[in-house]
Amino acid sequence: MAEKTEKIRLALPDTRYQTARRSWDNSTIRRPLRAVLGQMAAGFETCMYCGESRGTDVDHFEPVARNPLRTFDWLNHLLACSGCNSHQKGERFPVDDDGDPLLIDPSSEDPFDHLLLTLSLGVYRPLTPKGQATIDVCGLNERGLPKGRMHARKVVGLALREWDRARARNRSDEMREQVQTVQDQPFADVCQSMLRQAFSPGADVVFSDSPDLLALLRRDDLRAALLR
């Protein structure tokens, strides 16, 4: 990838985009790159933007059209579904007045510094301008995603209660199975948000309909298993 980047750098500035695009389209590196990104992805290789669909594409976080020199930059590659890559985010890359990206980079930033998930509605609320831009560009509250997150919360709740029953029977194999169920499902952000909000100041309100679940989410052994 370094060699390909150098060839792009040596091209005339006004031809770098065409050179980069042609090199990427004809490159044999995309398939192994996608495979490595898939191994790093949550669940069954889910999209790093929406968290629902299976990631099929290698997305350039900073678009090739904006910065051709990052076409083969490992840190600029994210696993994305075709919907997010081609139709939702595409070439959109908003920046602030200083030219800094307004999109959250999930490979290097903690999304929860910029976003708050309303668990009862499955909807994200922005905490920062970067959070708002990410919601808008990635359509985080569109395409049926809130409904999917609400379903994910139910699945997590059922699995964690089964984990507790297995713990009471001292069935470690069943406990591991329930943890795996949570980790394999889409919307990994839902479980992560539940774990974090379990210790938030308003946790009793957030989990007012399921105090038993709140107690489970605060267990050190369960948290260690889910975050492993």
From TrEMBL:
Keyword terms of this UniProt record: Endonuclease, Hydrolase, Nuclease
Superkingdom: Bacteria
GO molecular function, one term: endonuclease activity
Source organism (scientific name): Lentzea rhizosphaerae
Keyword Translocase in record: no
UniProt-recorded name of the protein: HNH endonuclease
Keyword set includes Transferase: no
Record domain HNH nuclease: where: 32-86
